[in-house]
Design goal:
- 8% of the residues lie in helices and 60% in strands.
- It has 278 residues and is mainly beta.
- It has one domain: Phospholipase A1 (Outer membrane phospholipase (ompla), Chain C).
- It has one helix at 2-23, and strands at residues 25-29, 48-53, 58-74, 77-92, 101-118, 121-136, 141-142, 147-148, 158-170, 173-186, 193-202, 211-222, 228-239, 245-256, 266-277.
- A 12-stranded antiparallel barrel has the order 2-3-4-5-6-9-10-11-12-13-14-15. Strands 7-8 form a two-stranded antiparallel ribbon.
- The radius of gyration is 23 Å and the shape is globular.
């Protein structure tokens, strides 16, 4: 009996070890990539680059990053806790290579991510708790006339919000839906909730050095007054699709101004962009 018991124990050792491996929880601090890759056409995502408005003297300089602080893997599921910190700055081109700053917005907050993969598809979601504030800068001030340009004085613009976006990905096609709720906002008349949906597709590794054409679209609708924003993004990415690289793209936008000091003005424009994906 003891002999059979010993044989049974020896046979079970690799099975137990395998079970422990499957259910083992792994912790990774400050990983090199993001659990939830930024949604390409969404305007409120980390960017590091420039967007040049066509047929205009305006451009945006975007400086920002998101990073996972801790990633937890358990039984095929991935959870993450991260932080966001970025700005988008409106500049105006003038002679002698001058780019006065007209307006700048700041956003910072924390995020929670979840993702799981099965065969060729994955799904998950991201929750963000964030703050945005907006400001006019000296480029919006007319020193000769000693007044703010266009008759627009600085106003208090601040919002704190929670955002939830869920996604489904099949190969390199990703669709997502979600919503945002502003639990504090100035001015008070801004609608507090909006719905969002989007889609993006990357053609993987068109040539050997990781050139991936892509197309992405994003739409938002404020539930209070049905005001809508739409963004279309078409371009190429050099590098890993969900990793570091360089993107060159065309952007079409129709909606309310992304800079908070102009929040009530509707814009429609085409632009060319360059971005470093971190």
């Amino acid at each position: 009996m003891k002999k059979y018991y010993l044989i049974f124990v020896l046979l079970m050792v690799p099975v137990v070890n395998q079970a422990q491996t499957v259910t083992e929880t792994e912790y990774e601090f400050f990983p090199n990539d993001l659990t939830i890759h930024p949604f390409t056409a969404n305007q409120l995502e980390p960017r590091l680059g420039f967007i040049f408005k066509m047929n205009s003297n305006q451009l945006w300089m975007n400086i920002g990053n998101s990073m996972d602080l801790i990633r937890i893997k358990h039984d095929g599921k991935i959870f993450s806790i991260g932080a966001d910190l970025f700005t988008w700055t409106l500049l105006k081109k003038e002679d002698n290579f001058h780019f006065p700053v007209d307006a700048v917005d700041y956003m910072f907050g924390i995020n929670l991510g979840f993702k799981t993969s099965v065969h060729n598809y994955s799904f998950g979601g991201r929750v963000r708790l964030s703050h945005i504030s907006a400001h006019f800068v000296d480029g919006h001030f007319d020193g000769v006339l000693d007044q703010w340009k266009d008759g627009m004085n600085p106003q208090v613009y601040s919002r704190e919000f929670v955002e939830l976006i869920g996604f489904y990905k099949f190969y390199n096609l990703r669709v997502y839906v979600g919503g945002t709720y502003l639990f504090h906002v100035d001015p008070a008349g801004i609608g507090r909730a909006n719905l969002q949906t989007g889609v993006e597709y990357f053609m993987k590794d068109l040539i050997s050095y990781r050139l991936s054409p892509y197309i992405a679209a994003d739409g938002k609708m404020r539930t209070r007054d049905n005001k809508r924003n739409f963004a279309l993004n078409i371009g190429f990415k050099f590098g890993k699709i969900e990793g570091k690289g360089l993107r060159l793209y065309y952007q079409y936008y129709n909606g309310f101004d992304i800079n908070g000091e102009y929040y009530n003005l509707r814009r429609e424009y085409s632009a060319l962009g360059i971005n470093l994906d971190l």
